[in-house]
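G., before I forget:
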Amino acid sequence: MAASARPMPGQGETMDRAAALSTFKRSDVAFYWATKLAALLVLALLGGIILSLIVGAWPAMKEFGLGFLTTQRWAPQLDEPVMGALGPLYGTLVSSLIAMLIAVPVGLGIAIFLTEFCPIPLRRPIALAIELLAGIPSIIYGMWGFFVLGPFLAETLQPAVIATLGQLPLIGGLFAGPPSQLSLFNASLILAIMILPFITAISRDVFATVPPVLKEAAYGVGCTTWEVVRRVVIPYTRVGVIGGVMLALGRALGETMAVTFIIGNSFKITGSLFSPGTTISAAIASEFAESAGLHQSGLMLLGLLLFILTFAVLAAARLMLMRLELKQGK
Amino acid sequence: MTTPATDPAAHAGPSAANPIYLARKRTDAILRALSVAAAALGLVWLALILFSLIWNGLPGLSPSLFTRMTPPPGQNEGGLANAIAGSVMLTVIGVGIGAPVGMLAGTWLAEYGRHDRLATVIRFINDILLSAPSIIIGLFVYGFVVVPMGGFSGLAGALALAVIVIPVVVRTTENMLLLVPNTLREAAAALGMPRSLVIRRVAFKAAQVGIVTGVLLATARVMGETAPLLFTVLSNQFWSLDVTQTMANLPVTINNFVQSPYAFWKQLAWSGALLITFAVLSLNIAARLIGGERKPK
């Protein structure tokens, strides 16, 4: 090849060059489309999820219509099945709300402790421990709640609360009834423990975005640590913290395994936090594998409701976090 | 402090007798105490969970846990061998499908779609899928795989896990590629490298460690995932690695055993839970160790 290239310089080279260029071009195009198709698959997944839920839920939607949202009765085994989402919807919202009421202050407290008060040598180990705990599978939390927390609450906290708060007018109804190992309240508590590391991890990341100069300036004019947190750190990171809290809410709403064991799977709304209830995900988890026909379709419709609910919360959370990133100039 | 406390109002500095200063200090102390209490409370709770997991799970750890099959009701001997094998298999297939797809998609977002409207939409949707309830993913796979295939199968479970892996890997791949300095890409392009080669040989090389970390974290995430397996794989009592059939797996076995009336099954559930937690924690730590090596640079 070198010999033949001498009389006509460059010709062999040009051929190779052309071949190489076209190989490059082809592999370039192939790689571009491989990556782009994979990216489009992400969109397709979302589309597929929505489609499968709607198709699965269609018979139930036709059968029950909007009444599904306002019916409390859940009797799929009847000859003329009656199914309503009110019980699971109530359980989902109430358990998530209570979980957030407990986990948000504690989670933020831990994050503030870690970023401002904690002795520096302890910061990394504690933060690492919290992040690791955020990775523990939710079935472990559920199991612990079922075997350990549920019996403990039924014997100690619940009787005490029933005897005191439960006797008060107005709010007494919330704490009425016999203590129970399976209850809405126990499920909320487990949910709170589960999302706690999550809230802490996110808010710690968000707090870390505050420029040290701002904090130093505040300390420089004589602020106490709390004043720095209250007047500098929190205002600076407000959007991010709210976004993080809403991400955690999205998690709590859809959480299945932490709740299923301990909530009691009862579709009746009693108004008391100490009585069994159910959530959408718990209802699906415990009934879906053995369901068929309209019953299954009803569960799919519950799934669709849950999806709409979490989608709205998560989308709002992401938009807020995106705004924060824009602010940081990312 | 050294100011004589004769006339505090005249010296509104940090004097011990300045009421405003005292009030501020008190608030600070109270809130400091509250935040320490929150940290203690949170850590104690979580320590309790780990403690009871070890306390209850450890006695059941024996060689037969890894060699015997899950027992039928009422029998007092057996192990989790088939469930462990099934779980490993589901996880490997799930990550094996999900990770490459996620890496390719993340590559497109970071390398080709930086200023693309479509990429913004995909990124947004991906972030939502990242925290979508896993039970919904189970319903999706049920509708798209279980029903057409005519029955529950290991493959359906693995696909459900893949759907959970994809968004995690997309996110980390994109983030890691974005950390690669553009000058590296420009240098490679200046040598005449075509774009796909620049990405594969230069950008991937530089982001390698981070991407591996992401895949490990995604593996840890799906290893204990239970909800999407409940009605895609189910579970069984036998040694079966046939992906077209139901397959025993740890999470669903734990789920079934926890609610059973048999003490031995409950013991197995605790031991299984300990195994899963241990595996998830070690993977997380491994991911951090690998990912951390790069930091000093």
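Residues 11-64 of chain A form the longest helix (54 residues). Confidence is low (pLDDT under 50) at residues 1-9 of chain A.

More on Monday.
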